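For the sake of transparency, this paper describes our internal protein records without simplification. The remainder of this section carries one protein's record, kept here as part of the documentation:
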Amino acid sequence: MQQRRQRLVTAESCTGGWVAKLITDIPGSSAWFERGFVTYSNAAKQDLLGVAPPLLAAHGAVSDAVVQAMVRGALVHSVADIALAITGIAGPDGGSIDKPVGTVWIGWGLADGRISSQRFQFNGDREAIRYQAATTALSELLALL
């Protein structure tokens, strides 16, 4: 990202800032990491990223529609070129038949409006799910670049 003179913004829910932590562990990341939003609650997603309440009501926080809205909101509320967003159910509670514990949506987007997202089903305890979500998001970001 530094070579491309691009900046990254993150919007994290279930990972609680873990992606931002992994990024800022890298010396010199301040040259390309613009900011990170931790939007754990629906209210935070609305207030900080502009995710529309009807969207959350219709699809739930853990959905393709919401992760894409998080990507768009992160780009709008930053000066970054690339956004990464994560929302999911890390457990041990909160899962359902349609969205069991370990369901995570990850989205990536570019300032030109291109957005991609993917649903993942991770296994393990809360820490394992969150770790897999954070590292998968970064691995997929590298593939995107």
The chain has one domain: 8-144. The mean pLDDT is 97. The CA atoms of residues 27 and 33 lie 11 Å apart.
